[in-house]
Amino acid sequence: MNFHDCFVKGCDGSILINSTSSNQAEKSAPPNLSVIGFGVIDAAKAAVEQMCPGVVSCADILLLAARDAVATIRGPYWKVPTGRRDGRVSTAADALANLPPGSANISSLKAAFASKGLSSIDLAVLSGAHTIGVSFCSTFTNRLYNFTGKGDSDPTLDTEYVTRLKSKCKPNDAVQTAEMDPGSFKTFDSSYYSVVTKRRGLFESDSALLNDAVTKAYVKSQATKRGPTFFKDFAKSMEKMNAIEILTGNNGEIRKHCAFIN
Ligand code: HEM
Ligand SMILES: *[C@@H]1O[C@H](CO)[C@@H](O)[C@H](O)[C@H]1NC(C)=O
Ligand SMILES: *[C@@H]1O[C@H](CO)[C@@H](O)[C@H](O)[C@H]1NC(C)=O
Ligand SMILES: *[C@@H]1O[C@H](CO)[C@@H](O)[C@H](O)[C@H]1NC(C)=O
Ligand SMILES: CC(=O)N[C@H]1CO[C@H](CO)[C@@H](O)[C@@H]1O
Question: What positions does the entry give for Ca(2+) 2 binding (predicted)?
Fold first, then answer.
């Protein structure tokens, strides 16, 4: 949620806005399928509004919740300076234009990050968030069953892993999910980098980190049980991402309810 908010119109809580009869919000774009937990933000906002109405933005609450969620599962901790204001615009088209899909190659990933002021190292570091969580099978089954339209699988994927994923994910399954870092998908650690090194990155975007000298070197350097600098690096890159195009002063507003523009 933190990533999807900050990459689309900056960290302004625009991911939280609900669609209306006249507006397809970011939430309604295909990349939204991975984003859950809106109720958690709405509940935090309601509690804060009761104590201190009209002061704390949804944008700040979202980033604080993400930081605390990661810390709760023994991940790194980073500073979240507050004072961001909430955006008044949220469109599905902006989400589609700014969020790279799981099928993205290394050049479009680097370009997407560069357009937000983030480096190749930030790309390699922030991708490490895939140490937690799951994906719908449908997001990556093309890599297993029909990668180039010849009934083949993605040659960059470890063949043993393809077999394992095929037993879990049948073609056209719309319900099943797979762990991105199997065995430790609820623990924030550096094992993502071992997974990618073993050519078991679940998305093409994960595998693609091996196709660039800088991102590949970073992946290899962290591919141990306690990646030597991953936590420190992650905190730093999150602080950078959390500063993308923020609204201050008289820009934006402090929303009353995170799902609705005032
Ligand atoms: C580098 C570009 C990225 C791409 C292409 C990408 C792509 C994806 C995809 C395709 C999914 C699964 C969606 C589904 O369920 O089908 C996913 C899940 C996830 N991504 Fe990323 N992602 C990227 C960067 C990030 C970043 C920067 C973060 C956070 C800092 C992040 C955090 C997550 C998390 C936590 C999940 C799991 C969600 C869940 O378990 O419900 N991703 N990502
Ligand atoms: C906003 O939309 C979501 C999903 O479409 C829905 O679950 C939620 O109840 C809506 N929130 C409000 C406050 O109407
Ligand atoms: C990477 O993907 C982009 C967008 O789909 C495409 O235009 C470009 O040709 C691809 N680059 C390479 C090297 O495959
Ligand atoms: C694989 O893709 C090709 C080309 O898009 C298509 O003609 C074929 O029917 C697909 N095969 C399967 C099993 O989906
Ligand atoms: C909550 C929400 O708006 N979900 C939408 C996510 O995107 C898919 C595909 O575009 C829609 O069908 C969902 O309604």
Answer: 131, 181, 189
Ligand 5 centroid from CA 159, angstroms: 33
Q: What does the alpha-carbon distance between residue 86 and residue 65 come to, in Å, rounded to a whole number? A: 16
Rounded to whole angstroms, the Cα distance separating 209 from 213 reads 9
First to last CA, the chain: 21
DSSP lists the bridge partners of residue 5 as none
pLDDT at 207 over 80: yes
Beta strands in the chain (DSSP E): 134-136, 177-179
Which tens digits make up the pLDDT trace of 129-160? 999 999 999 999 999 999 999 999 999 999 99
C-alpha radius of gyration, the chain, whole number: 19
Ramachandran category for residue 162: left, alpha or beta (phi over 0 → left; psi -120 to 50 → alpha): alpha
Instruction: Determine if ligand 5 sits within 6 Å of the CB of residue 33.
Output: yes
pLDDT per position as a tens digit, 27-53? 999 766 678 899 999 999 999 999 999
Candidate CATH numbers 1.10.10.60, 1.10.420.10, 3.90.79.20, 2.60.120.200; the one for domain 2-133+180-241: 1.10.420.10
List the chain domain ranges: 2-133+180-241
